[in-house]
Amino acid sequence: MGLSISDEKFKGRVEEGINDDFMRGAVRSAQERLQTNRLAAANELGNWEEWRSLGEEIRQHVLNNLDYYLYQLSENVSKRGGHVFFAQTAEEASRYIKEVVQKKNAKKVIKSKSMVTEEIGMNEALMEAGSTVVESDLGEYILQVAGDHPSHIVAPALHKNKDQIRDVFRDRLGYTGTEKPEELAAFARKVLREEFLSAEIGITGCNFAIAESGSVGLVTNEGNADMVTTLPKTQIAVMGMERLVPTYEEFEVLVSLLTRSAVGQRLTSYITTVTGPKEAGEVDGPEEFHLVIVDNGRSDILGTEFQQVLQCIRCAACINVCPVYRNIGGHSYGSIYPGPIGAVLSPLLGGYDKYKELPYASSLCGACTEACPVKIPLHELLIKHRQVIAEKEKRSPVAERLLMKAFGVGASKPGLYGAGAKMASKVVRPFLKDDLIHKGPGPMKPWTDVRDFPAPNKEPFRDWFEKREKDRGQKK
Amino acid sequence: MNGAIQNRDAFLNNIAGRLGRKPVVSGVARPDYKHKPQYDVLPNANQEELLEVLRQQSLSVHVDFFETDAKTLPGKLNEVVELYGGGPVSLWNDKRFGEFGLTPLIEEGWPEMGIETHVWDPEIGEKNIALCEKANVGITFSDITLAESGTVVLFSSKERGRSVSLLPKTYIAIVPKSTIVPRMTQAALKIREKIKNGETVPSCINFITGPSNSADIEMNLIVGVHGPVKAAYIVVNDQ
């Protein structure tokens, strides 16, 4: 499917989202649960800020030395007998994977959940080549059977209710049971077990590769990635080029940040590192191992003011706290990457032509930045996008141009940020009533129609945050 | 034999160019990180305290938790297998089963009780996988056990198939008390130690924390999706 999940315009997508009452209710309760769990998991450590700082340090060190670590990773995968393919574009990546599948004359491919394979449109390429591609993550499987798209990067089928799932299973797979989640899952387990056992090729993403050992690390709760890497004879792992760490020591830190931030678990049920194909004498595991390292626009972000977005570990914590996502749902973003991270990343990977509205789909409340376990300044990057759009591309309405200029000048120079934020509250004033923004300018309108946002605070987020951190520090 | 590496130079040159410098393929040292919070978790806990943390956490991740000493281990293992509905049983071919006095149960006890027993055997090839798929219970030892998260760490080898902990309907990990460490940090250090000593990293390392589960349907927790639907840890006092 590629990065884009819809040809509809932003406004139409948002309207569809806000009229879907079930979806909005489901998103609200999922956000609440995930957020509560995340906070509990973070707070129990007692020094979460230190963990976040370490996460940030690790990610920045890797990005600044990315060529070195990718070199080391590829050497070590190769030493273990694995093949490494560096793909500059989505097409190159898909073509290579298709060639491997065709060489094996494989009819069935089983997958574990992977955003990057969605991004490169791999499933379509393989289906064109005549292979069946089966998703094995329960949520992804439901969407595949239903012919639908993910709306959340960790809980992809969040927008579907159990009755809809029962109906889809009944109509497409001959399911005769009830809508009880346990029963639906037991049915999927049985169907998918057969698929695992009969697939010739297993394809996984990669949460983090480990350069020093040439390993690929996979994180799931269902154990499906383990099935995919244990049973088929050929394994292909596909990774975004920035998703690696120097050693197991950094791996464990990032995994700890990921599982706590994504689902509030100390660790998920299955965390697995696979290194090359199986060794001589081993029975299970793949005979052949391929690692496909994908650029697809990422290198254009390196060395720019947006580089920090590449620190992302795809935990979705920012999505789970976002008031805009809460109201418009994942599909409104029109990208496989929704929420604040999607609003920053999608225009970079897919271009402003398609995604120019996304940086405005934010109230700039900064909750995303605060939630991010690797300290990506998400709301500041959104402001930078608006600045680029407003100043360079001249695409935004006049009100936004004014507003964002005020934000933008300050955001590029931290010292001026305070002044910019204070100016912003004046620029927004025409839309204010009782200190709430009732009618957002331009693209903000569809979601301010359903929700009033607090106006930019007299005390800007950054000042508030610093003060709060100071208070916290004193309490320690 | 080394695997192929394709398109690397152009790819890495482009990255280095974006970073505004020449490509670097050697000489980068891991930084001395300013923050080290991972060492602040259970820093001075003794083995008893770690066991208690493991017990609490195991229960919260839906693991059936048992404790025993070396002498009573065979009885306890048999009891848990029966609790899970008996055989067929699949096991690693691991010398620790012998060291912990389990050989008589595996080689005589269970067969006499009519419990089908399959010990992983590279000689029979893929038949191992079929047997695990049919098995009701898979049993392995834990190589490293993480107290904080309630996790058992398994190193694969030709005698220790990945399928044993994954394909059977239920899974039992035997946890020697001496394998318990505070958290994943210590496991990472042990694995790195192997690498530094020139040992080969196992082709598969599992960090398993309870039975498989999913919350993909309306955020309801469903225990038992693709992997085992039940999991037990039997901690053995080996000290």
Automatic annotation (TrEMBL), chain A:
- Lactate utilization protein B C-terminal domain residues: 384-470
What's any GO biological process attached to this entry? Answer: lactate metabolic process
Domain 4Fe-4S ferredoxin-type intervals: 309-376
One Pfam entry for this protein is: LutB_C
Record-listed [4Fe-4S] cluster 1 binding positions: C312, C315, C318, C372
What residue spans carry the Basic and acidic residues bias annotation? Answer: 459-476
GO MF annotation terms: 4 iron, 4 sulfur cluster binding; metal ion binding
Q: Organism's domain of life?
A: Bacteria
Q: Where is this region: Disordered?
A: 447-476
- Mind listing the UniProt keywords for this protein, alphabetically? 4Fe-4S, Electron transport, Iron, Iron-sulfur, Metal-binding, Repeat, Transport
Q: Which Gene3D superfamilies match?
A: Alpha-helical ferredoxin (1.10.1060.10), NagB/RpiA/CoA transferase-like (3.40.50.10420)
Q: Where, in this chain's numbering, is [4Fe-4S] cluster 2 bound? A: C322, C365, C368
Q: Ranges for the LUD domain?
A: 71-294
Main function: Is involved in L-lactate degradation and allows cells to grow with lactate as the sole carbon source. Has probably a role as an electron transporter during oxidation of L-lactate.
Instruction: Tell me which family the UniProt entry assigns to this protein.
Output: Belongs to the LutB/YkgF family.
PANTHER family given in the database record: LACTATE UTILIZATION PROTEIN B
Q: What is this protein called?
A: Lactate utilization protein B
Source species, please? Heyndrickxia coagulans (Weizmannia coagulans)
Cite the source lineage: Bacteria, Bacillati, Bacillota, Bacilli, Bacillales
